[in-house]
Amino acid sequence: MSKPLEAVNDFVVKFANVNGSGSASANELFARSILRMGVPVASRNIFPSNIQGLPTWYEVRVSEAGHLGRRGGVDLMVAMNPQTWNADIGEIEPGGYLFYDSTKPIPPSKFRDDINVVGVPLTAIVNKEFSDPRQRQLFKNIIYVGALAALLNMDVATIETLISEQFQGKDKLIAPNVKALHMGIDYAKQNLAPLGIRVRKADAVGNRVFIDGNSAAALGAVYGGATVCAWYPITPSTALAEAFMKYCRRYRMDKETGKAKFAIVQGEDELASIGIVLGAAWNGARAFTCTSGPGVSLMTEFVGLGYYAEIPAVIMDVQRGGPSTGMPTRTQQADLIGAAYASHGDTKHPMLFPEDPGECFEMGALAFDMADRLQTPIFLMLDLDIGMNDWLTKPFQWDDSKQIDRGKVLNYEDLQSGKELQRYTDLDGDGIGFRTYPGTHPTKGSYFTRGSSHDRLAKYSENGPVYVENVQRLLRKFETAKKMIPAPVRRDAKAKTKYGVLYFGSTSPSMHEALGVLEEQGVHLNAMRLRGFPFSDDVINFVLEHEQVFFIEQNRDAQCRTLLVTESNLDPARIVPVLHYDGTPITARFIIDKISALLKARNVAPLREVAGRA
Amino acid sequence: MSKPLEAVNDFVVKFANVNGSGSASANELFARSILRMGVPVASRNIFPSNIQGLPTWYEVRVSEAGHLGRRGGVDLMVAMNPQTWNADIGEIEPGGYLFYDSTKPIPPSKFRDDINVVGVPLTAIVNKEFSDPRQRQLFKNIIYVGALAALLNMDVATIETLISEQFQGKDKLIAPNVKALHMGIDYAKQNLAPLGIRVRKADAVGNRVFIDGNSAAALGAVYGGATVCAWYPITPSTALAEAFMKYCRRYRMDKETGKAKFAIVQGEDELASIGIVLGAAWNGARAFTCTSGPGVSLMTEFVGLGYYAEIPAVIMDVQRGGPSTGMPTRTQQADLIGAAYASHGDTKHPMLFPEDPGECFEMGALAFDMADRLQTPIFLMLDLDIGMNDWLTKPFQWDDSKQIDRGKVLNYEDLQSGKELQRYTDLDGDGIGFRTYPGTHPTKGSYFTRGSSHDRLAKYSENGPVYVENVQRLLRKFETAKKMIPAPVRRDAKAKTKYGVLYFGSTSPSMHEALGVLEEQGVHLNAMRLRGFPFSDDVINFVLEHEQVFFIEQNRDAQCRTLLVTESNLDPARIVPVLHYDGTPITARFIIDKISALLKARNVAPLREVAGRA
Amino acid sequence: MTYIPKPKLHHPSLPKNKLGFTHRDYEGSVSTLCAGCGHDSISAAIIQACYELDLPPHRIAKLSGIGCSSKTPDYFLGNSHGFNSVHGRMPSVLTGANLANKDLIYLGVSGDGDSASIGFGQFAHSIRRGVNMVYVVENNGVYGLTKGQFSATSDKGSKSKYGALNNDSAIDMIGIALQLGATFVARGFSGDKDQLVPLIKAAMNHHGAAFIDCISPCVAFNNHAGSTKSFDYVREHNETVNRLDVMVDHEPITADYAPGTVELVTQHDGSVLRLRKIAAHYDPSDRIAVMNYLQERAAAGEIVTGLLYVDPEGQDLHDYLNTVDKPLNELGTADLVPGNAALAKLNESLR
Amino acid sequence: MTYIPKPKLHHPSLPKNKLGFTHRDYEGSVSTLCAGCGHDSISAAIIQACYELDLPPHRIAKLSGIGCSSKTPDYFLGNSHGFNSVHGRMPSVLTGANLANKDLIYLGVSGDGDSASIGFGQFAHSIRRGVNMVYVVENNGVYGLTKGQFSATSDKGSKSKYGALNNDSAIDMIGIALQLGATFVARGFSGDKDQLVPLIKAAMNHHGAAFIDCISPCVAFNNHAGSTKSFDYVREHNETVNRLDVMVDHEPITADYAPGTVELVTQHDGSVLRLRKIAAHYDPSDRIAVMNYLQERAAAGEIVTGLLYVDPEGQDLHDYLNTVDKPLNELGTADLVPGNAALAKLNESLR
Ligand SMILES: Cc1ncc(C[n+]2csc(CCOP(=O)(O)OP(=O)(O)O)c2C)c(N)n1
Ligand SMILES: Cc1ncc(C[n+]2csc(CCOP(=O)(O)OP(=O)(O)O)c2C)c(N)n1
Ligand code: SF4
Ligand code: SF4
Ligand SMILES: [Mg+2]
Ligand SMILES: [Mg+2]
Q1: Atom of ligand 4 lying closest to residue D219 CA
Q2: Overall pTM surpassing 0.80 (yes/no)
Q3: Which atom of ligand 4 is nearest to the CA of D111?
């Protein structure tokens, strides 16, 4: 029996439950309580692609140091699901803890002797007090929260406050929940000793908020001035549209008339959704759709139209495990090439890479300004890890002096005062022409929009030079896009180094944790976080500054590295892929192991092969 | 008035007509007659995206030397279309010839004084003999062929033979056509002097045949054993499906029963077409679809299913000018990235690059073996230039000993004898598992096909390591694909050189012509023609062998170069793009000018910028 | 067709409508379609209808898919914004445009391939949603632009020029539109402008999804004897159930008619449709009876034309979504952005 | 539901069908659907039908799209090949499969979202083509797998769990199937296995496109009071027009019935359908009358179930394409490759 783990405010608890058993809210109560105690947590759902009856897990990482990435390994397993018992037990770290329902005796063979077992007869306790089966199921969950509170020494008052907040309105539910909570607390107090792992009040959370990226991106769309949303349900993006509807109901109903300052349409599929978005944007509304990989694939033809006819559009892609239907409830960053070069012919589309819900909000709003100013489709690339999990993130803020920037649009006065519409003429050298909204002026400024080849004035033309001039202008426009993409974020190593690392999106927290650990091990890495595509010269220079740059991605084919090399002409040999793509969020441990291994390998094998192997 | 051009068997004639005026067959008669005289010709249609009334051109390059690429410039313009008169006159080389209908007087101002004008009162002549308007229109075309025959000193007997061959069956049409022909000949003989450009009998055609790539690819599908074709009309691929139907009717009707050994379905769109193809291939038939860019975009989601569920399919993409609807009647090689990485998630698809109709046939057949052996979708990348124009190409041949290779399939006997189906297990190290056709055996070998993540035995699994093992196997399979792609064709310069050039597809004839000219100018280039994707080590080594490699493509974004760099980790700085993308076929002149300019620029500007600028 | 662009200068004697616009002000660029193509007649009817309705051209948005029919928006209403989108997807693009600005008139032009083959789903769903639009299918039973393949409205059993036989049963778009809840359904014929113009005018005044199936022969590929989409066939089998006059500014109905021969329908926007009955017992307000009647006549090989069904009280998507009266594309920062105070409050609830 | 996989070893006493297969031989892996989901009952009915028809499991190919309904092919006929394709595209994949081998039975399983929303076009066109298949829509009027959004068959005016209101008029797939020329159209209810099993059997014996709209309540998201797809509502409004017995090996019809109460329909393959009439004057052979009747009853809020329409002489796509009797996937090099001699001849014609 190896010595019990000892840790304060630094451990991982994993709940193993059955899908649809109502455990979700109890588990979230547990996580939020720790947050309220001032200790940062990162929580993650691991769930199946089904509605009821299959295994699900909820992982809570408690980290006063503020490491919010997935750590890997489990210190305390709350094993509530017989189906997955063996696998769950297997995951516990030596010296870790197993918490289980001891009502029915379980043969010793089913345990491990290098872990500490904590049994609480949850079923027995709950059945004594409650008779209704649904109640029994729900309160059993609250009881284990109570028992854990006692075992981990959590602040009971905090939990009670959260319960009463949660049931505001349905007040009569508060008492029984609090009661169930104390049934768990009391049993643990009377029969069990506190564990070696513990929660202690701290002040490490600050003013951060706890929210999922889908909601944050939806909020960003509200602040970005989106009025039209056309979408089609698909995991993991469905909640984004639903959140947009929720926030619009809250913030966008006209006070006097009670009418809606928004229009949300569930399309019959993704082709219709993007078609509606392009139609609305063409007609002067800010419009977006949200989807995931399969939806992006179906939108491919329309995205090409948006690119070539130069219509603003925002596409929020909450990436899941591919290819095809793939792993709908797992996370990946594997739609990058599919989005960046979506559609036949020569096409390129800007993308934004939020690292957390905070940036989902900011970039969610920014995307609409970019789309209008660039008159082209913009992709906001979330992933399931950011989108569907609650993250601790900086509080939302907005500069009230900011006005919506609709880009180059001629209005009635402009036309009346003699300004002429030259739809596809590059008057300013930025590759962007002026447009008009339909219905602006009785006799001036109308034009014909088409996906076929056209001249500076939007007239149909099959003339070669006219075509070439037009698509070269589109390249200039793409250069302009570079300036609008949020600048990459650089953090340099404490010591001078010839090694760099590139990363983006949900990899951030694990990357930052890994950088700290590697630094301690004397491995110095300058790091740069990409925030969008196309890449600015800062990124290219960063690579040139270093002999060797590791590119951390959550896909198999090093897709972002391909984009970088393609657009920059950098030698790929100096950019070594580090790829995690099993569908689980990348961990600091993985990054540390891979980079250490690669640094060793470097001295024996030529780079190209390293890259090849990685 | 600059001196009249003098040339024998080496000039360009361009016919300017009105769409739908029946000029096509007369113009083709002209080209074929020269071929029959043993002089190679290359003919190209330049037509609008409409049915009737707009300008069309037919360009015939006469080249005993056998240069079949587009040359650029016009030596003899047959100006039959008033709408385009000015532009047409403008295209004539100084000293070149203008042939026109002189029935109505045309003001001298409408001509150029550095060209030679040849007027024939075609309307007057035809109206004298024929009254029916349709006849007048048709025979006017034959009359100008006759006149040209006399002016260029073509062999009349040959033309007459071709006419009688053409109207076999409708014999009573032969006489009036021959008559019209002679009306033209006689007028020219009596009123005009022969031109400085002339056709002389030669023996430079050999046993080559004159056919379009769409027909050749369709013939390849017949010989490849395709039994199911599902398609949706789109220029320039429509004729491919229509030719497949024609050849099937000729070669695939069961002698006894008169029943069809094929099934051709016009889908309601491209999604249905590829869906039908995947369903048929899953069920053991060889199936294909043909389309162009917009169709490929719509097939994107399904292509990902084919990749991940590992279903053979052949997609023939006759590329046209993109993006979006783009230039439907112009040519480009711009769907390469869209096809190679089609679909969300990590996906890669093999492609074949035929250089002419001859290879359309060979690769059209090969694609089906590759699809079955690799169990994945294969793209055959034609373009409009190859697909819709008649090319002089090597005669079709077939090795009758060849048997269709269905790849790894377990049949009833296999299963009966105890062989077990392990659908997605890599038993042979080539990344390819065995499959079974539905209905093979009552109790053994059935499996469930899905686009969601699955294990070695095709069972659903959300398990990370299982997923990773599976998609890594797909990478091994892609390695296997390299071995099946026809080897690149290398032609070395006469002298040792540090410069190389890569090219593929319809660029071939112009490239070969350019190589000859450059060689004469003392510019030595080793050349390699790519015949498919993924690229073999030969290609990588070719690049490494040279200090500088020029990559000739007919698209804006150097798409094939992106694929090469991405898959090989080669330094893009050594690979300089040479890009032609105005929708017209690339010419030797363009290649020569670009490469010469780049070689000059090389010494002043660093490579990266050259690449950037190109 | 001619290539000399018509002079745009206005002959003073040209008649003007109430807005002072002449017929020319509603024309577009010169058609590039085949001489005699039915589609050009429909363009002419659209021009006529807009002129007669005194519509400001710029208040109309014209959208289409891909095809010869879908090219036509370039050939009428040159002062209107037009959008030639992608094949089969006009309905979704139009729906989006409509959401952005409820104040314009949306005219969707499509073909039978565009709407019944690749676009069948979008056609159906835009009708179901009650998008406020005029949806015209220029139905020639063939793919014109790609040179004569079958569409989903081609006659079962017909043969294409390259010898393929069509075995699929033809889609009757009118029947489908009725099933899916269209509130205005009509069938016209490009060869009968007198009938077509008022149908288009009535559709433009209709509030909700107005669908017009307009038979429009393709002289290049589907006008041969035996084709039910040929000029001759339609003329011989055209069974007109009613004739229509559209009165927008409520002139008093003076002339009186034999009882049961005329019906007056007042639409949501106040415009009055005067239906002169030809099939005496035909009642365009009884959806089920109409469907039944059309099925029977179709079985008999007849092509029923006229205003086939109308629900004058039809609702539209904006009514359902309860959107503000001001067009969404006119809302500004103040209307749309809740501001920082709201965020502060929200942050509180997320801790 | 349980997670202990059932022992596959056969208890000797288990009843066997003519092929010597037991009921278990037609089962699949254990369902992962919600307890009480209507779809599981349909799977059970399919198993029952195949067992009773003595079908060799491997001669059936089961195909589906994406959704809870589309998952079910994994839960029945474990010895059949299955293909869980992509969302809304089962009809095209099935069509292709059918072309490759005309000898198998093709069972397409889909949902209302899969077939009426994203897949409406493919649904329609596969029916138009007369693909020889059994097409079952497990219709719960909601998106189950994505947790409760509206589908195109959701009731107009219904509210989703996150508060959205459905304004689109619901699609009646039966009406559409009839318009598009389906030759076998039936509606069943997952709660009435006795009615459903014979309908599936009859459909499997039908030559041509057989469509079954099966109401299948979603207990998780659309079984609440007021939902017309709830168990209670369907039970209360189920208007059954007939009951069916399927006789495949022509047993003599012994029992005699009151005149007009029974009708015998002999299908193309010789199987006899014995229709026991419940709605006395209902005639399932008169397409137009059937459509009219269904429209009227639907307007009255009734759900008509039973064998609604059948054309026993239906033709299928292979008949139209005149394909050889041997399945295309069995043709070999000798059948398919014309050989070099043919090329030599062709080359001649190209010089
Ligand atoms: C995605 C896509 N597929 C195919 C095409 C080729 N295409 C252009 S028009 C057309 C059919 C047009 O038929 P219809 O809508 O009836 O119009 P018509 O020309 O008959 O008026 C097709 C298949 C295309 N443009 N885009
Ligand atoms: C292209 C694509 N879009 C969206 C989804 C997400 N999705 C999966 S199932 C489904 C709807 C299923 O509804 P239905 O067909 O009625 O099946 P049910 O679950 O109700 O039985 C959706 C939208 C997907 N898998 N693929
Ligand atoms: S092809 Fe047919 S539809 Fe197209 S323009 Fe000509 S006549 Fe009209
Ligand atoms: S969610 Fe609905 S449809 Fe899906 S399994 Fe549960 S009950 Fe059935
Ligand atoms: Mg048409
Ligand atoms: Mg459903």
Answers
A1: 7
A2: yes
A3: 3
